[in-house]
Design goal:
alpha/beta; 2 domains; eight-stranded mixed beta sheet; 8 strands; 25% helix; extended
């Protein structure tokens, strides 16, 4: 009977170790690691369709940050967004930020289009040049109804 209990304890320990390893991996994969390792910037968008807290912030297709907060501004009716950028990556202060799509069936992400200024955003600064999400459905409806200005 003691051999049976030892086996059960070993199997239970292995299952517990596997569960802990999976939880650590899931936390790292979703960006829920121990605190932000960068600096925070803000931006205000007209539309943030498909973007939520935890969405990637990319520069040249490389993940450089994460969206950390979204709130509706009751005065401007815009989506005020907070996001972190990895420490050591400097963003020129004339850069633009926009909501991009990974494709027709892919999700959205926030993309930074770098400018050419020799000056950089400081932690807490706001990126003013923004472009919100473009609704694929509204574009298709415009095309089908002939409202597009084809020249």
């Amino acid at each position: 009977m003691s051999g049976h209990s030892t086996t059960e304890v070993l199997v239970g320990g292995a299952v517990l170790a596997g569960a802990i390893a999976f939880a650590v991996y899931a936390g790292q994969a979703t960006g829920l690691s121990a605190g932000p390792s960068g600096y925070e910037l803000t931006a205000s968008f007209r539309s943030l369709d498909g973007v939520s807290v935890g969405t990637d912030v990319r520069l040249a297709g490389v993940k450089v940050g994460t969206v950390t907060g979204i709130a509706l501004n009751p005065e401007t009716y815009r989506a005020d967004t907070r996001f972190t950028v990895t420490q050591g990556i400097e963003i020129p202060d004339d850069s633009a930020i926009l909501v991009s799509s990974e494709g027709l069936l892919g999700g959205n992400f926030v993309e930074i289009m770098p400018g050419g200024s020799p000056y950089y955003f400081a932690p807490g600064d706001e990126i003013l040049d923004t472009q919100g999400a473009v609704s694929l459905i509204s574009l298709l409806l415009k095309f089908v109804s002939g409202d597009g200005n084809a020249e």
